[in-house]
Amino acid sequence: MSRRRDELDILAPVVDRFDAERVRSPKVASRISQAVAAAIKDSGQSREQIAAGMAAFLDESVTPGTLYQYSSEANLKNNIPAHRLIALAMVTGDARVLNAALEGTPFVAIKAKYEPLLEREVRKEQLADLLNNRIEIADAQWRASK
User: Fold this and answer.
1) Taking the complete model, does pTM exceed 0.70, yes or no?
2) Mean pLDDT across the stretch 111-135?
3) Residues of the chain with pLDDT > 90: what percent?
4) pLDDT at 27
5) What are the residues whose beta carbons fall under 8 Å from the beta carbon of 18, sequence distance 6 or more?
6) CA pseudo-torsion sign 31, 37, 41, 45
7) The dihedral of CA 19, 23, 25, 31: what is its sign?
8) DSSP string, 72-139
9) Contact 81/29 with Cβ under 8 angstroms?
10) Contact residues for 118 (Cβ-Cβ < 8 A; gap 6+)
């Protein structure tokens, strides 16, 4: 394998996601339950610690039993509410759980520190489009004046 390929293999992904084999379901509720279970397992924290962190973040009661319900595919009637999903991501530091919920939509969750980079790239695109439009108008006017 080439050196360049080795370097690319060690780069972290831009958008944090679970491996497709780990969190997969055509049903959003099942996918979120799988993601919740995976985020809890990967966090290295106990359910008690996570529940306590979520409770502190939200200023409301969250129990380890509630986390069991949210991570159970057999109990999809008790899927995690959005504000608690956000708290789970905050406490575990795992944005993959948010991206699992957003799968199939045109949105992704990324670290806020990257927002200025996105702003830069969007503005570059907008300015390029504006410049190209102005050039086309000027070219058309030039051709019409001949």
Assistant:
1) yes
2) 95
3) 72
4) 87
5) 34, 35, 38, 96, 99, 100
6) positive
7) negative
8) -GGGGGGPPPHHHHHHHHHHHT-THHHHHHHTTSS-----GGGHHHHHHHHHHHHHHHHHHHHHHHHH
9) no
10) 110
- pLDDT bin (cut points 50, 70, 90) of residue 74 is confident
Cα–Cα distance list, 95 to 43, 85, 87 (Å): 12, 10, 11
Q: Percentage of the chain surpassing pLDDT 70? A: 94
Four-residue CA torsion sign, 79, 83, 89, 90: negative
Distance CA 93, CA 115 (A): 18
What's the sign of the alpha-carbon dihedral 60, 63, 66, 71? positive
Is the model's pLDDT at 8 over the cut of 80? no
Q: At what angle do helices 82-92 and 28-43 cross, to 10 degrees?
A: 30
**Six token digits for residue 29:** 């509720």
Q: What Cα–Cα distance (Å) separates residue 105 from each residue in 43, 55, 62, 69, 100?
A: 26, 29, 28, 25, 10
